[in-house]
Amino acid sequence: MVIPFVYESRSTLILLTQIFIFAIFAMSYDILLGFTGIVSFGHAMFFGIGAYTTGILLQRTEPTMGLFLLSIVVGIVISAVVSYIVGLMTLRLKSHFYAMLTLAFASLFQVASEKWRTLTFGNDGFTFRIPEVLIDRTTFYLICLVLMIIIYCVLQRFTHSPMGSVLLAIRENEQRAESLGYKVLHYKIMASIISGVTACLAGSLYTTSLRFVNTSVFTMDTTLDALLMTIIGGVGTLLGPVIGAGLIEIAHHWLSGLAEKYPIFERWIIFFGIIYILAVMFFPKGIVGSIQGWKAEKRVKRGANVKQEKKIAG
């Protein structure tokens, strides 16, 4: 099967599939950070729940497409329950207190996955088989692409709904939103559940693409990936995290490839950091956010010029 704009390269298919998966993960984080103003350091918790749920179910039984879909549903239910409980316990806290407590919960899940060796095989992790339908990289690529588009459209509709408007009000001024009669905690928990469920789906797809899972899915690095993708792409835009995921995954792939050929790039993570710094310097609102800002400034200037011309003509 020929895919438009994609050469028949296995590595290219894998890279694009990873971009789609992390775009879903980054969009889930943007619901918290960009639309509700919540900074979480434990978002990997939901990503890991999805990864381990799918991995365990497929590893313990005969892998079929029905079981794969069931594993996603089970992971989503677990993530929804966990995000509700964690949200109820932590979302009353403000700023860095909440962020640190979510990190503690993610660490708790990581420790549990390390110690419960009979189920998770500890730090070593485990491999598993996937349904025959998903073995073909092209099929899995298309599934991830379609899911990314669907998630984007659903979240776009959600953020433009009345509830999305309330979340934006909470982000801008939580006290004022509360004084207007909105149950701020209720809305925050709903945002947390939607974000957690979406991250869980990304985790299930991620572990399916690797056919392997270990405790790294619960680490702080996983959350930081989503955070940086969101910031570089543009906070509160949804399209921004998609672009951020693409740029970071491509940069990661390119620099790690150079490291294999040229010794100077062995410390490629340093160059990776320089890319982050340059992106923040030249696009302080993220790529999409900065472009939207520039367009808004042009519209304002154009409007001011039109008013001036009318004044002179009058």
From TrEMBL:
The chain crosses the membrane at residues 12-32, 38-58, 65-89, 95-112, 139-158, 185-206, 226-248, 268-288. One of its GO terms (molecular function) is branched-chain amino acid transmembrane transporter activity. Keywords: Cell membrane, Membrane, Transmembrane, Transmembrane helix. The keyword Transmembrane helix applies. It is found in: Cell membrane. It is a multi-pass membrane protein. GO terms for cellular component: plasma membrane. The keyword Nucleus does not apply. Its main location: membrane. This is Branched-chain amino acid ABC transporter permease. The lineage of its organism: Bacteria, Bacillati, Bacillota, Bacilli, Bacillales.
